[in-house]
Amino acid sequence: MRTLLFILMISSFVITFSQTNALLKPYTSNLKNIEDLEIKKILLPVLDNQNLIEEEQLNRQNKTGRYMFGYEHQTNFDFFLESSKHNLPGKATLYLLKVKSKNALSINLIFNDFYLPEGARIHVYNTEKTTIVGAYTSDNNNDNNQLGTDLIKGDEMIIEYYEPKEVLGKSRLSIGTVVHGFEDINNWYSQLKVNESGGCNLDVICSDGYPWNNEIRSVARITIGGGLCSGSLVNNTENDGKAYFLTANHCGPQSMGAAVFRFNYDSPTCGSQISSDSQNALTNQTINGSSFKARDSGSDFGLVELNSIPPANYNVFYSGWNNSGDIPLKTVGIHHPSGDVKKISFDEDSPGSGNILSASINAEWRIFQWDRNTTTEGGSSGSGLWDENHLIIGQLHGGQANCANSINDYYGKFSESWDGNSSTSRLKDWLDPQGTGVSYLVGFDPNVVLHDANLIAILYPDSINCGSNISPELLIRNDGQEPLTSLTINYETNGNITANYDWTGSLITGDTSSIRLPSIGGLIQGNNAISITLTNPNNGTDGNSLNNTLTKEFTNNNKCLAYPNPFKNELVINFELEKTNDKTVAINLTDIQGKLIWSTSHNTATESELKINTSQIAKGTYLLQINYDKETSVQKLIKN
User: For domain 453-557, which architecture applies?
Assistant: First the structure.
């Protein structure tokens, strides 16, 4: 069975901004020396990480169960009985408890009984306070009375509970599970997790993914104790943004009361397929907990409702669906293979119908072979399958596909999940509460506004620029309801050289466009930064200012001959003017064996740079030669 490796990429100092109040700091942050306080400690049984990894590798090879990154210590600790109590000024109370699982790479908790009155708060952190999660408050109370925490680095965590005098004795806190992390899923110990999936997997931000932006925003990853899966937000016929989330039955939807759902774990750059250079996500946007709604093993579906609505700045989308069972012309999968950043897969042919992994006849869609050099991997369980009309028709059950063998994946059919014996074994009660009987429902975007110009990425520079000037390239998308026809683009280098560019065009909702900006100076040799901001869409106000600005750092080399490198469809030659004396120079491009690919000449008195269309040049390694009057300069180039 396919499962999802859930990686929470957290920097060296982290406060979680998801369904927690990051403005509330741990009380001990105000203390000079926390060691002066008595803190009781719980020591858990010692585990052998290598043995745990070897056992889990066997499970992954056989694709059985969830993808496990941690061992789940089953406990039943009453927090208030186990912790140290400290009376504070003003009659407030502070409780502290250390939990140690020797040799763990990370620790996370599940409170199997959780209730906080207003004003009380919990933080969890390691002893060095390099990783801090919280504050959890009364906002995290839920019908399940459960809470799962994010991961803490290291083998020891401190649980801190602050209780105001007005609510003394009103909280309930019981720790039911402590997860001993035996894999470094947060890349805290230089064990690479981004780019760990097969090299053929395609980042969702790459151009092939542009038409699927809405569906991409609906996909999230789930951590359930020490196990991991994924799924998608789905719309219902009331179009009210109720946070229904579709995943796989084998992921355990009935046990997701304390799960943590992470959205937008996407690479900010297209670094896949040609080279494994995907980047960590720039956000950590999670929702804590859910309530079970329905599941069935025949089509391997699970449906839960998140404990809270994803906030506007998450910019989520609720995917539409198709329950007809009609065979689609082609399909798309969106998933997190091997815990990597979100990827997208394409099958340009109709799937088959069968029941390889199910006991129910024809309960699955069979993907015979993925196209465009894409696939899925272990770690993608529960991820959605969409038809050519951008409607969900199933969720991933399992299969054999990978980069070396992109054949045979099996998705439980949405149509088979629609009906069942009761509301807890079918989808229709939840996704069609009005009983309309519709077979198709389009998706729902709760954040759509009249004007919304979204700065998706700074495409150029990559990591290296050449010369004292730069011509940035950016990618925009119209996320507004009206066609985008004009835009002001403000950009600056190193915070002091500023330029403006007025763009005009015509982008309907969801359309994207790449824009090459006029050259701007202010670059220095070495490290530089460029910032770009979009303003005045259609000469009006942007309804979502959270997606208008990006900053990118890069290295500048004033002496290189051509950029970008690697290049794609355009190459800019930057002449060494001190060598030319405004004379005509000869330019040759050869392959690595010395075969001439093309040549031209250029008078540097007219332009100090020359743009060459390279769309017809094959991928490979080349040598650029510029013959000045008495000297030849050579640079090695790569065409992607």
Answer: Sandwich (2.60)
Contact 456/513 with Cβ under 8 angstroms? no
Active site residue 432: no
User: Would you kindly state where each structural domain of the chain is located, as residue ranges?
Assistant: 14-181, 202-441, 453-557, 562-639
Identified catalytic residue from 106, 345, 381, 406: 381
Instruction: Say if pTM beats, i.e. exceeds, 0.90.
Output: no
Tokens of 85: 């109590």
CATH 3.90.226.10 fits 202-441, yes or no: no
Q: What is the pLDDT of residues 554-603, one digit of tens each?
A: 888 766 778 777 778 888 887 765 565 667 788 889 987 788 988 888 87
pLDDT for 112-170, tens place per residue? 999 999 999 999 999 888 889 988 999 999 988 999 998 999 999 999 999 999 998 99
Q: Does CATH place domain 562-639 in 3.30.360.10?
A: no
**CA separation for the pair 299, 180 (Å, rounded):** 32
d(CA 146, CA 139): 12
**Distance from C-alpha of 180 to C-alpha of 494, rounded to nearest angstrom:** 44
What gap in Å lies between CA 356 and CA 121, rounded to an integer?
49
Exactly one of 123, 250, 397, 602 is catalytic; name it.
250
Q: Name the catalytic one among 300, 432, 452, 542.
A: 300
Tell me which amino acid residue 217 is.
Answer: R
Told to judge if 290 belongs to the known catalytic residues of this protein, a careful annotator would answer no
Most distant CA pair in the chain, distance: 87
Active site residue 250: yes
Q: Token pair of 302, please?
A: 């699970």
